[in-house]
Specification:
The protein is an alpha+beta fold and about 150 residues long. It has helices at about 1-35, 60-70, 75-80; strands at about 45, 55-60, 80-85, 90-100, 110-115, 125-130, 135.
């Protein structure tokens, strides 16, 4: 009997370690998904915070990332974006936290996957920077980038 009790007691630390590891992983996953500026299904409006309020909607997150890093040419922009007018409605279909690294800034930007729900490109899927995303009431989802 002494050996059985000892075996059970020895299993408790490893069982607790596994339980804590699972809980920590779940908490980190929830924190990571909550950290993005939007969640899947959010209704948003597109409008740039820059001087020109039109928004480039890129056909891939990879091309948008390259554009932000300064790796682009006019042909790439023309062939791989649609231009959304300010106020274009969309639904968030994804978000990549901190995936954008602008060439001349020390900050990172979230990239937001969208499906356009009105305008001439209605139904088009693409990627935009979080700075170009606003709540339905017009408020930006991020503070203005310096």
């Amino acid at each position: 009997m002494g050996q059985r009790t000892e075996g059970k007691l020895m299993r408790w630390p490893s069982t607790l370690a596994v339980v804590f590891a699972v809980l920590a992983t779940a908490a980190l996953a929830a924190q990571a998904s909550a950290a993005c500026v939007v969640t899947q299904g959010d209704h948003v409006v597109l409008a740039s915070q820059g001087l020109d309020p039109d928004v480039f909607v890129w056909d891939s997150a990879r091309r948008l990332t390259a554009y932000l890093e300064g790796d682009y040419d006019t042909e790439t922009v023309l062939h791989h974006t649609v231009l959304a007018q300010p106020g274009t409605k969309a639904v968030a279909v994804g978000c990549k936290e901190g995936a954008g690294h602008p060439k001349y800034a020390k900050t990172t930007l979230d990239l937001v996957g969208v499906k356009l729900t009105d305008g001439p490109s209605k139904g088009h899927y693409g990627w935009v920077v979080a700075d170009d995303v606003r709540r339905p009431d017009g408020r930006p989802v991020t503070p203005p980038t310096p």
